[in-house]
Structure formats: C-alpha cells, structure tokens
C-alpha cells in the first residue's frame, strides 16, 4: 500500500522537536560512555494546525482521522519530507466567522 501525503497548507507557528535515543553509562569518576540506540536514534515529534474554511478543515481532519493514529503518511515541511503518524487528539476549533482550525500532534515513524 502506497503512503498518502498530507497536502494541506500548515499554519505558521508549528513546531518540531527532535529527541535522541541514547544509552548512557555513568562511571563513579564522572566519566560517561554514551552511544546511540539503533540506526534511527533521532526521532521528531511535531505540532501543527491548518486554518481555513470548514470544507478545507474538514478534509484535513478526515484525512488524519482516517489514518487512525496508526497508519503513517507523508508530510513535506519546507522541502523536508518525513513520515509521521498522529498521536493523541485531533482538535477542530471554530476560530471566527467562517474560519475553522484543526490542530494535531505527530510522531515520526521509520518504515522498513
């Protein structure tokens, strides 16, 4: 099955955080021996939102909901292409008049 791409325009102000998986052994004299765990030891989490009219926001919401937090998808942010899945809640908010927003959290996944 081919991965689908999230194609909606992300709002400014989204954030990405990188966490490193490491093994650290601390010795009594303050010396540490540290090594990366696995070949993909750097993993990103991200928080984004999409704001637009209800039709656009609902389409983005349905895309995320259809992936059920388990199925990965592709996201291109500024030319950096990553594979993510949603984590936690997907929130739709009525901002004002005809403006709506969908906010969501992502976790980077690595495929074989």
What does this structure look like?
This protein is mainly beta and 112 residues long. The chain is built from one helix and eight strands; from the N terminus they run βββββαβββ. The chain has a six-stranded mixed β-sheet, with helices on one face. It has a two-stranded antiparallel sheet with strand order 3-4. A hairpin with a 5-residue loop joins strand 3 and strand 4 (32-36). The chain starts with a strand and ends with a strand.
Summed up:
With 112 residues, this protein is mainly beta. The chain contains 1 helix and 8 strands; from the N terminus they run βββββαβββ. The chain has one helix at 54-66; strands spanning 5-6, 15-20, 22-26, 32-36, 42-52, 73-77, 80-96, 99-108.
Characteristic terms for this protein:
12% helix, two-stranded antiparallel sheet, mainly beta, single chain, 8 strands, 1 helix
Secondary-structure element pattern, one letter each: EEEEEHEEE
Count helical runs: 1
Rg calculated over all Cα atoms? 18 Å
Poorly predicted sequence stretches spanning 5 or more consecutive residues: none
Q: What is the straight-line distance between the termini?
A: 13 Å
What is the number of strand segments?
8
Per DSSP, what share of the residues sits in E-state strands of 2 or more residues? over 45%
Q: What global shape is seen?
A: elongated
- Structure classification: mainly beta
Largest β sheet strand count, sense and barrel closure: 6 strands, mixed
* Share of helix, binned: 10-25%
Strand order of the largest sheet: 1-6-7-8-5-2
The overall pLDDT, averaged over residues, is 96
